[in-house]
Amino acid sequence: MNTKTLEEAVSYFKQNQGFDRIIKKMKSKYQSFERETPGTIIIEKPTKMEREALSGFMKKDYSKNKNISISLKKFQTRLDETRFSGVTIKQILEEYFGEEIVSNKEQKIRKRQEFEVFIKNIKKYCNYVETVETIDEILNKNADEIVKIKKEYYKDKENLKGELIKAIRAIENLPENQESLPIFAAKVNGDPHSLDRNKLAGQFFLKFLILKKNGQKIEEQNICKENNCIQNKTNKVDKNDIEKSENENGAKKRLEIVNKRKTKTTEEIAEIYYNNNVLIDEMSNMVLVRNLVALKNGQVHEGWQAFYNRHEAMQVTLYNLSQIDEISTKIDKYKNFKSNKVDETNIKIQNLDKCLIVENPGVFTDIIQDGRLKTIPIVCTYGQVKLAGLILLSKLVEAGMQLYYSGDIDPEGMQIADKLKQRFRNNITLVGFDEKTYKKINRMSYLVKKD
User: How far apart are CA 24 and CA 167, in angstroms?
Assistant: First the structure.
């Protein structure tokens, strides 16, 4: 192509205003097609100037046409018959508008390729294969997450990069002991709010936690930054092989289970954090207990023991639960440990393997005020069971306790009972949730209303 010829062709079409709308139509047609000479353009209600310009160039009379249809292939043929021979329509359009003319399909392909390069570069910040697999699974399977990530990518790719790196840094450096989310965030990212759920990094961090296998990093498959490889216990694999793992099993099964129900409750989310040694809402998330004792590092916990010995109710927060190893209804289990002195007068009467669970604080109060029930181990969940309650009950089951749940026989109470039964199965017995009791309560309610 002769540069001078191209410049002359562009100058010809720019100087003749009758070609202005025609050239713009050609540009739109090229962007919507992939072929070199894509289809036909239609000039609706052409002006006198447009008729004259096309008639002169195409050597055809368009003076009486209501609409003019121009084949771009024929336009190119006619172009080759002029002094502009050797110049293509596309070259003229790119010079005319001062930009590369790319089809919409090609633009999408390029954007996808650029996004893939962006994600590939993000993966370089991953130190563990599992993190890479999790990113792949989010992009390969979770349509909502893909839309969200791409939206942020086109909005501000540098900000997205920074947020993803923060999430990666967090997921690969989870605390070994229970730690509050702000403290953990400050340690890994230098900002206590960096992993808040209203921040992108916090949202990605939670998604990583949900998909993370067994809450453990794959320590034996460490990606070596020094030699740009994935180092296994027995061999080394080129880092390019990361891409090959994208469609393998990896975390797919985890994602399939998660995607069956995308929306998670507040307590489910809190438990996901808790299972990874991260505490949220650790002070207000609480449960009421009485006649329970706790063990930490082989010793009876002094605070729990004091309330236990006095048969008094105690509020236990999620933070309190994170500071102990075991919970039981019987203090004599611990008397052989090197611990604080145990009140022997209380040991014999506390030898129980059962614990009563209620959801109503009023019912809890009535029970603890009844002197005949002074030694009964009891827990109050404050209505819907929060994470503190679930963790406490799990520790009781681990200690071999049988749980007995009694609650309101109404929609909310039935919901709580079902949730506990689904979680603890044979380790919990539902008290009063039978047809006879239900009918009896309904009849009593009817009589009260009638009176």
Answer: 46
